[in-house]
């Protein structure tokens, strides 16, 4: 290759490089003009509106007002609420009094009212299983009491305060009664005097068992501070109930 040919080739590549640089610069300039001038001009040509406040209105009414103002209600969502009555608008987007372009999408959330949960069947469950069943349903186990039952075995639920299938509010409290078996429920005599405790035990079909004296700063001397079997547990008729007496 001669020197002249080499120099001509170099000049050709330089021209191509210069042309590419000029083209790239032109593209950048055009993009900046479109972004800073053309698009703002197009946007400025679109009318703006002030978003009306439809929170607290009926869902359909709120939708119509938003659309009449020039908004496009793209979605009406429903959600449970303990505070907003059923069918009323809970929230809106864009928010009230916002300045937006006409035709912008809007979203409304309408209350489905207080969520109602059907109470599960607790009959025949243990206290632990009943607590779990209620937790899964969004309810709460309340008071637990005992009573003798000739059908349901000792330790299993025979009754519930909110009947199975009844609609109720989330976190409602459900009380239960648990079978103490076919025997009798031992009366609670804690806090009574020894004489009072013996009278109640005898009238309930039990007998007074051993008594043990123990020091106590919380009870007066002669007061029952403990018993075996425990209160409300099931025991055969005539069974002895041992007591702990404060001294």
Helix/strand layout:
Elements: H1 3-44, E1 48-50, H2 59-68, E2 72-79, E3 89-93, E4 99-101, E5 105-111, E6 116-118, H3 127-137, E7 140-147, E8 157-160, E9 167-169, E10 173-179, E11 184-185, H4 194-203, E12 207-214, E13 224-228, E14 234-235, E15 240-246
Parallel strand pairs: 2-5, 7-10, 12-15
Antiparallel strand pairs: 1-4, 3-5, 6-9, 8-10, 11-14, 13-15
* Poorly predicted regions: none
- Report the major sheet: 3 strands, mixed
Whole-angstrom Rg: 40 Å
Helix residue percentage: 25-40%
Task: Tell me about this structure.
The protein is α/β, with parallel strands linked by helices and 247 residues long. The chain is 30% helix and 30% strand. It has four helices and 15 strands. It has helices at residues 3-44, 59-68, 127-137, 194-203, and strands at residues 48-50, 72-79, 89-93, 99-101, 105-111, 116-118, 140-147, 157-160, 167-169, 173-179, 184-185, 207-214, 224-228, 234-235, 240-246. Strands 2-5-3 form a three-stranded mixed β-sheet, covered by helices on one side. A three-stranded mixed β-sheet has the order 7-10-8, covered by helices on one side.
């Amino acid at each position: 290759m001669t020197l002249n040919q080499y120099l001509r080739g170099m000049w050709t590549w330089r021209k191509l490089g210069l042309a590419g640089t000029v083209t790239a610069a032109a593209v950048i300039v055009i993009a900046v003009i479109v972004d800073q001038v053309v698009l703002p001009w197009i946007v400025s040509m679109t009318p703006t509106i002030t978003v009306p406040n439809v929170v607290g209105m009926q869902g359909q009414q709120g939708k119509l007002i938003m659309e009449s103002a020039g908004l496009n209600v793209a979605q009406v969502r429903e959600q449970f609420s303990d505070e907003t009555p059923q069918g009323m608008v809970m929230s809106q987007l864009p928010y009230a009094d916002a300045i937006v372009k006409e035709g912008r999408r809007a979203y409304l959330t309408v209350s489905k009212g207080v969520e109602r949960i059907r109470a599960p069947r607790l009959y025949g469950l243990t206290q632990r299983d009943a607590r779990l069943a209620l937790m899964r349903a969004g309810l709460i186990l309340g008071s637990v009491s005992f009573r003798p039952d000739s059908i349901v075995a000792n330790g299993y639920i025979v009754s519930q305060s909110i009947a199975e299938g009844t609609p109720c509010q989330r976190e409602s409290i459900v009380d239960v009664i648990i079978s103490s078996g076919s025997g009798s429920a031992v009366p609670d005599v804690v806090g009574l005097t020894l004489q009072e405790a013996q009278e109640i035990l005898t009238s309930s079909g039990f007998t007074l068992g051993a008594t043990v004296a123990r020091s106590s700063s919380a009870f007066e001397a002669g007061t029952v501070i403990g018993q075996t079997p425990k209160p409300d547990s099931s025991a055969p008729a005539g069974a002895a109930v041992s007591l702990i007496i404060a001294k």
